[in-house]
Design brief:
Length: 286
């Protein structure tokens, strides 16, 4: 009995220490990116993935787009320079929460899973998932992708949705397996670093379709004479509406409030809507 108590006490101590370390690391990350420290440094570092037009794309060897203009507006509000780190999409959240960067802005859809890792601002845009197909394709809904090879951008909601529909998911409460609509159909998913890379693969016959957000899908599809982009819907008529927001480290409420203030103003006066129009035109032509 004494031995069991000692083991239990040790386990509790380890759990408490682990929790304390986690809370401390979150606190350090948010403190490292406080507005005061950002001002002292004279620069705010933003993480993005410039493979998602019109929100971020490359022009003259630098990231530009709707999100970069939002980031610049936030930097201007604080009164500092803007530093942009162009990285792989699936590394953005961890980079922000670890304190490497102040914010992440890359057409990031807000999900419950992502909320566990970072804090999100108010929404600045909405989107839906789309399917890029050959123009003569008769695919009209996600169930029609059965048996097909599907390309996605790594770490995006399109990647998550297609992977879950192919592999199935688990009910959080009952832990029972929930069958995906493409599970057992022979459909497969291939992850690419960008929608553009996936489209190149599709054009060469390596994949049959590409799933990505609405505007990037339409822009990429417009660059191929034989491609089209349609909304991803289910047989029951449901769709995949989602919202984009800026992310900051967990607990960084001060910075989050400032970001919300800037976005609210840009939303209210129609500035973001105009940026979307402008950069859709520019990125389609590039």
């Amino acid at each position: 009995m004494k031995k069991s108590k000692k083991i239990l006490s040790a386990a509790v101590a380890i759990l408490v220490m682990s929790s304390a370390l986690f809370m401390t690391s979150c606190k350090k990350a948010s403190e490292k990116q406080s507005i005061e420290q950002i001002k002292e440094a004279g620069v705010i570092t933003v993480y993005t993935n410039a493979e998602f037009p019109p929100f971020e794309y490359m022009s003259d060897n630098k990231p530009v787009g709707v999100d970069m203009q939002i980031a610049q507006a936030i930097a201007d509000e604080i009164g500092v320079k803007l530093e942009i780190k162009n990285v792989k999409f699936d590394t953005i959240l961890s980079s922000v929460n670890s304190g490497k960067g102040s914010m992440g802005i890359a057409g990031i859809s807000v999900t419950d899973e992502r909320k566990q890792e970072v804090d999100f601002s108010i929404d600045y845009a909405t989107s839906k998932q789309y399917i890029i197909l050959q123009k003569d394709s008769e695919v009209a809904k996600i169930e029609d992708l059965a048996g097909m090879k599907i390309g996605v951008q790594l770490g995006t909601t399109g990647d998550i949705i297609i992977s879950e529909e192919i592999n199935g998911t688990e009910d959080e409460k009952t832990k029972e397996h929930i069958k995906g609509v493409l599970e057992g159909s022979g459909a497969s998913v291939t992850q690419y670093n960008s929608a553009a890379d996936a489209a190149v693969a599709m054009n060469s016959g390596k994949v049959d379709a590409v799933v990505i957000d609405k505007l990037p899908a339409e822009i990429v599809a417009s660059q191929y004479e034989n491609f089209k982009a349609i909304e991803l819907v289910y047989a029951d008529g449901s769709n995949t509406e989602e919202s984009y927001a800026v992310c900051v480290a967990k607990g960084n409420q001060e910075l989050l409030e400032l970001v919300n203030k800037v976005i609210e103003k840009l939303n209210k006066d129609g500035t973001i809507d105009q940026w979307i129009v402008d950069h859709t035109t520019k990125s389609s032509a590039s």
